[in-house]
Amino acid sequence: MKTPIFKGAAVAIVTPFNPDGSINYEKFGELIDFQIENGTDAIVAVGTTGENATLSGDEHRALMRYAAERVNHRVPLICSTGSNDTAYGIETSKAAEEAGADALLWVTPYYNKTSQHGLIRHYEKMLESVNIPAILYHIPQRTGLSVDIATFKELSKHPRVAGVKEASGNVSYCAKLIDACGDDLPIYSGNDDLIVPLMSLGAMGVISVLSNILPRQTHDICELCLENDFEAARSLAMKYMSLTNALFSDVNPVPVKAAMNLMGLDVGHCRLPLCDMTKEAEAALSAELMKHGLVK
């Protein structure tokens, strides 16, 4: 049985930007502290929610170094270093390990994609290059690449494969994956609206967008699941379900950054090609935040 990197709620933390578009490191540090102080079980930096697609290589590496220094081993730090270029993924993963990350998050190759055999070779090559564990990230609606359960079963045999962030939105697929791989492959929900269903099947927690604004509550949902109190977990999750859905009313992380700005956290805008929500959509999001007392 593999020891999970974390159990509970990990925040897929946003990358805050200054008005000129540069990275706001001071705010990034404040967000990390806010998360840890409010019960977040792990920090996932420079992922999709952290807008890694528009970060330069230098910015990506600098953010990983800063995150490692600020987290300072208070909770596990997981850095997203996946790529559709195996060589670049290796380079960035080595930089994360050198910076002090506890683990890595590797999305499947996108756009150029690959075969299932190529996917195994891609991950094996990356695993050979580092000495820290990696969570694999399955999100076919973004990458255009679905992973066969047999492929994950083969990869789960590697001692440094520490789990899967499962964001297909397919509960049946996840049930089959857990059944096939068991304790060899810890599963984390990649969807905030499926925390309770997937944890009821045996998932270890969530890598969460919602945690950016509700870290304590997201942690508590997971903690209740881990305690097998699924009725209380369901009740708490449903309390925030409409807000969870509102955070995905536009392309992530557009709505969550808008929500954080409405809450006074001042994380700045997204980088193009992502742009601000329409006034109507932002008003609907604001109404959801107001309903939960997060804005006045």
Q: How would you concisely characterize the structure shown here?
A:
With 296 residues, the chain is of the alpha/beta class. It is built from 13 helices and eight strands. It has a single domain, classed as TIM Barrel (Alpha-Beta Barrel).
Descriptive overview:
- The structure is a single chain.
- By secondary structure, the chain is an alpha/beta fold.
- The chain has a single domain, classed as Aldolase class I (TIM Barrel).
- Helix content is 46%, strand content 12%.
- The chain contains 13 helices and eight strands.
- An eight-stranded parallel barrel has the order 1-2-3-4-5-6-7-8, surrounded by five helices.
- Helix 1 (25-37) links the parallel strand 1 (8-12) and strand 2.
- Helix 6 runs parallel beside helix 7 (171-181), helix 9 (215-226) runs antiparallel to helix 10 (230-239) and helix 12 (254-262) packs across helix 13 (279-291).
- The longest helix is centred in the first third of the chain and has 15 residues, at 57-71.
- The chain starts with 7 loop residues before the first strand and ends in a 5-residue tail after the last helix.
- The model has no long low-confidence stretch (mean pLDDT 97).
